[in-house]
Design goal:
heterodimer, A: globular, B: mainly beta, 7-stranded mixed beta sheet
């Protein structure tokens, strides 16, 4: 079993829909990262969080440390949000290196 | 700042050849990471440096892979000899504080070994 599990693996939605991507992990962590990778390959860090909630524009990330779970929400989704979203955790035991989920491929149709 | 710079962006080589990938981190960042991304395995950490010192190289697949960071502004990842299974996108990233800070990724090097 992977230390970091994302769901769903693939998600297709219509423009304007509210999107939720989930990330569950099995180890104690110091921080959790959400990354975005557009077709063509560039990887951008969206959020780093260790508790509570963070918001940036239409993106919201939440984390529940007790339940070992994080969610990434996109409000009023747009075709330009189509990308792969990757969850990564920094385990407490792990020499400060990230462990990655397999990613969620999001497609937003106009 | 120009962000993390990687070169080359694309590399096509034949099996058995030596391949060298280069990375210039963001000025002032103390941590540098080399990642490999494949369809089958996703993103994997190969090695990371803190203050130019290799901290964890447990992800380096085998002795054919080596990485150096001779100074704070330059790192190389070398594969010798290369094999077709090394074909992947190799990303370099840097941060101020290892995995406890935002990581900034370079554009990646797409390596194809024929």
């Amino acid at each position: 079993k992977n230390e970091v599990e994302q769901s769903p693996q693939n998600l297709t939605a219509q423009e304007g829909e509210f999107i939720t991507i989930n990330c569950s992990y099995s180890v104690g962590i110091s921080a959790l990262h959400w990354l975005q990778q557009h077709p063509g390959g560039g990887i951008v860090s969206l959020f780093m969080l260790s508790s509570g909630k963070k918001k940036h524009g239409r993106l919201i990330a939440t984390i529940n440390i007790q339940e070992k779970h994080s969610s990434l929400h996109i409000t009023a989704s747009h075709p330009r949000d189509s990308a792969v979203y990757i969850c990564a955790v920094a385990p407490i035991q792990g020499a400060q290196k990230l462990v990655f989920g397999q990613g969620t491929r999001l497609t937003i149709n106009p | 700042d120009a962000g993390v710079i990687q070169s080359p962006r694309h590399e096509v080589t034949e099996m058995g050849q030596e391949v060298t990938l280069r990375c210039k981190p963001i000025s002032g960042h103390n941590s540098l990471f080399w990642y490999r991304q494949t369809m089958m395995r996703g993103l994997e950490l190969l090695i990371y440096f803190n203050n130019n010192v290799p901290i964890d190289d447990s992800g380096m697949p085998e002795d054919r892979f080596s990485a150096k960071m001779p100074n704070a502004s330059f790192s190389t990842l070398k594969i010798q000899p290369s094999e077709p299974r090394d074909s992947a996108v190799y990303f370099c990233a840097s941060s101020l504080l290892a995995a406890l800070d935002t990581q900034y990724f370079g554009p990646g090097t797409r390596l194809t070994v024929l």
